[in-house]
Amino acid sequence: xxxxxxxxxxxxxxxxxxxxxxxxxxxxxxxxxxxxxxxxxxxxxxxxxxxxxxxxxxxxxxxxxxxxxxxxxxxxxxxxxxxxxxxxxxxxxxxxxxxxxxxxxxxxxxxxxxxxxxxxxxxxxxxxxxxxxxxxxxxxxxxxxxxxxxxxxxxxxxxxxxxxxxxxxxxxxxxxxxxxxxxxxxxxxxxxxxxxxxxxxxxxxxxxxxxxxxxxxxxxxxxxxxxxxxxxxxxxxxxxxxxxxxxxxxxxxxxxxxxxxxxxxxxxxxxxxxxxxxxxxxxxxxxxxxxxxxxxxxxxxxxxxxxxxxxxxxxxxxxxxxxxxxxxxxxxxxxxxxx
Length: 339
Prior knowledge:
- By secondary structure, this protein is an alpha/beta fold.
- α3 links the parallel β4 (78-83) and β5 (105-106).
- It has helices at 17-29, 65-75, 89-100, 111-118, 120-129, 140-145, 170-180, 232-242, 278-282, 287-296, and strands at residues 7-11, 36-40, 53-56, 78-83, 105-106, 133-134, 137-139, 151-155, 165-167, 184-188, 193-201, 207-219, 222-228, 250-258, 265-270, 312-314.
């Protein structure tokens, strides 16, 4: 009897064209047949053009989201769900066991862990328990009691760097609050190098891979120029912090800053594939293949420190093309969208 197809569904697929292609190669390398299904709120998302099937979904914060996802899982015989933005992480974590009963794994950690890493203040406590350094963080109310500048501010439940930035004085802070609201996290501004560490953790809690990549240039919250750095201190940092997030499995990334000559100071975990992950894959750590192997119950090998060092990634804009019939449904048709 032949193995059933290993069909994968990506939620909030957006512009992840390179990652989708990496998953296709991973299936081929494992000798698996399977279809790739992409979901988004609009069919006009770039990566929706390169999957086998594109499905338009309601917004992740609506009551219709999970029922629609269940229907797609059944209709397309989905074996693995891979979230690609922060928008539906907690929702998917909450319903992961329901999908597992349909023989479909969700690449997500437990809801309590996802909630902790999404809540910037609770996350600070995880860092402390790991014996690692964080960046002094507080909500806006505590900041008002004893303000300091320069400061770095971001929404308490932000995503894609929207509403994040350095403020140098009270006037700039007032303007920032007026624009983005008062549910802000305020941190010390720490100068120095910035790193994202792509991590793969098995379901048994073993970290199989941790690839630090230095963020050399960032545009709209995503890395544009990046460099792999085979740094034992950064790799050990990732292993220690992961130990404080039991149940987290699959691919996620840890972000930190390190002043020249200083220790890493962690400021964020993204419980999903990051935008710059193609660099880690190109450096020899096939993270999509690892995810598929883990979902199949195969043993994923240890690869800590086994990747190409000093590999430079220079991202650039490309384009995919799609003939459309109904133009009035396109995002930005009535008024252009500014990002």
